[in-house]
Amino acid sequence: MPQVKVGLVGFGIVGAGVAEILINNSEIIKNRLGSEVVLKKIADLDINSDRGVKVDNRLFTTDAMEVINDPDIDIIIELIGGCDYAKEYILKAMENGKHVVTANKALLAQHGRLLFDSSEKYGVDIAFEASVAGGIPIIKVLREGLAANNIKEVLSILNGTSNYILTRMTKEGISFSEALSKARKLGYAEADPTLDIDGSDAAHKLTILISLIFGTPYHFDDVYREGIDKVLPLDIRFASELGYCIKLLAIARLIDGNIEARLHPTFVPSDHILANVINAFNALYIQGDFVGSTLFYGLGAGRRPTASAVVADLIDLGRNKISGAARRVLPLSFASPPEKELPIKPMDQIISEYYFRFSAVDKPGVLSKISGILGSNNISIATVIQKERESDSSVPLVMLTHEAREIDVKKSLELIDRLDVVVEKTVLYRVEKR
After folding, report:
1. Interhelix angle for 26-33 vs 303-323, to 10°?
2. Which CATH number fits domain 138-299: 3.20.20.60, 3.40.350.10, 3.30.360.10, 2.30.30.240?
3. What pLDDT band is residue 29 in, cutting at 50, 70 and 90?
4. CATH of domain 3-135+303-323
5. Which residues are catalytic?
6. What's the CA gap between 351 and 89, in Å, rounded?
7. pLDDT, tens digit, for every residue of 277-303?
8. How many Cβ atoms are within 10 Å of 424's Cβ, its own excluded?
């Protein structure tokens, strides 16, 4: 029986999970692949700590290049994260004629074009199922399962840490800091959770998704992003009263030849299927022109789900090797990339419904002043709620608007926040339609 020989660079949480799958599920992998997968070498700076999986100590090295330069290895799995060393290792592996599996979303979002061009140059495959949504096989879905469709829209929850925090804030009425503390205790948040809560992690994933959907390697900087650290229980409560919940939503849309690619806390209707995605789960709601609406749901991170995606890629590349069909499915699945790169729509030009919360002085004429400014900037009010006094000096005034342009909204709020009857900066959320 032929063998597929593998080198693993990075033996952290996910790397240990990969080894665990290759050991525990070796028989089913061999039967499905028609070949034995042999884990030949493992590189990590720490080769002594117990990862909870029994691996032959003779496989370990602290020198990643020893793995990458081994002529007997067919496929390199890169799981060290970051960009500098990971990029160097992957490019060298490709130069050596080795196929690559990576879970490195930041690297793909920032250097995807270079990696995909190198894959073509050296005639090797690069697979990255684990880079988006953990155990949900969304890369294969977009590259193969939905390949016959024009994808019109993706609404997605792509960061389990943020979704867990927002779930706890919603269900328990607690503050962001309290919910973050709970996430840390349960292992859902890193010691430094910045990339999760500022939106960078999910924006990396959204960058990869739009690259797949539209056939062009877009860059992380193309995607608008906001995090969840300024979400307040007060706005979560108002959202619920208005029939919404707040989710960190990653949005991709094709509108009039332009791509909307944005990530921010969003009012999602309570009866939308994504409103029921709670805790650390991820989900993607995808609209294709022929398939219609589809939903993909599961754990977006963690040792086992992510390792499952890595090994799925390994099996795919193993099949390619055995059949002599490298690059059967190209990284972005377009054999003929679009001649013209579709532009990302500037955020100022998007059209959305909006939620505003004004902190206003409790006296007559306030509503007319605010609505007058909104009206003069083509913003139509759909709903107004004036709540009880929240301090001695102000009351919350809540509005939902009809569709408006972002640039008009920004102009309006700049003027409104200068009014002497408005005592704090206005809170804004974009609202998904019912």
Report:
1. 30
2. 3.30.360.10
3. very high
4. 3.40.50.720
5. 205
6. 42
7. 999 999 999 999 999 999 999 998 889
8. 15
